[in-house]
Specification:
The protein is an alpha+beta fold and about 220 residues long. About 20% of the residues lie in helices and about 35% in strands. The protein has 2 domains: about 55 residues; about 140 residues, Glucose Permease (Domain IIA) (Distorted Sandwich), CATH 2.70.70. Strand 4 and strand 5 form a beta hairpin. The protein is elongated.
């Protein structure tokens, strides 16, 4: 288990804030032990939250060219046939994974191949489980073309608390299945848009792990 690089700025802010409130409690309220204990407890709570949220657990995985691997930890909240209007402009199988603040928020490539499309969209911060979050929220759209010619589109979608989406890829890059491709801070969602002939291994309500769980086969 390590600490993810995206968490260092947040940890620094929390440490500075903790030092300030502890100083205020001890300097201005030296006779009030309750105030000092409150400062200590609050500081510990915030530090633990940051350490937990930005954890980067060690995981072993096996590359499988015929499978689509979960790009994130979380709960499957959508499994349906839908119209994808940004890139494919036709019907696709949509699988959406909701990441709560307790989940690991690293995002990974679901398949290997070439990044044939990338676009960042600024937008709203609706709750990640809202259907419109897929098209209205701040998000990225990434398409990876498998060596067999099939394409998988996935979106990083900001939620009501998530205010920063980070990505590590651009058009033309070679994606490697299960490799880290980004991070979303504080609650979010990832949508997958798959070919209609994909054989799905998941259903609504399933809990999946990034780089570990099989979403389907192509």
């Amino acid at each position: 288990m390590t600490f993810h690089k995206e968490g260092w700025p947040s940890l620094f802010i929390v440490l500075v804030f903790s030092a300030i409130i502890i100083f205020i409690a001890k300097y201005f309220f030296p006779e009030f032990l309750v105030a000092q204990w409150f400062a200590y407890v609050l500081s510990c709570f915030l530090i633990i939250i940051i350490l937990q949220f930005f954890r980067d657990p060690s995981r072993e995985f096996t590359i499988n060219e015929g499978q689509i691997i979960a790009p994130a930890d979380g709960k499957v909240v959508v499994v349906e046939e839908t119209e994808e209007n940004e890139y494919f402009k036709d019907k696709r199988l949509q699988v959406s994974i909701f990441m709560s603040p307790l989940n690991v928020h690293i995002n990974r490539f679901p398949i290997s191949g070439k990044v044939s499309f990338f676009k960042y969209h600024s937008g709203k911060f609706l709750a990640a489980w809202e259907p419109k979050s897929s098209t209205d929220n701040e998000r990225t759209t990434i398409v990876v073309e498998h060596p067999n010619g099939k394409k998988v589109l996935f979106r990083q979608i900001a939620g009501a608390l998530a205010r920063r989406i980070v990505w590590y890829c651009k058009e033309g890059d070679q994606a490697k299945q299960c490799e880290q491709m980004g991070f979303i801070k504080f609650g979010s969602r990832v949508d997958l848009f798959l070919p209609l002939d994909t054989k799905l291994n998941v259903k609504i309500g399933d809990v999946v792990k990034g780089s570990q769980s099989v979403i389907g086969s192509i």
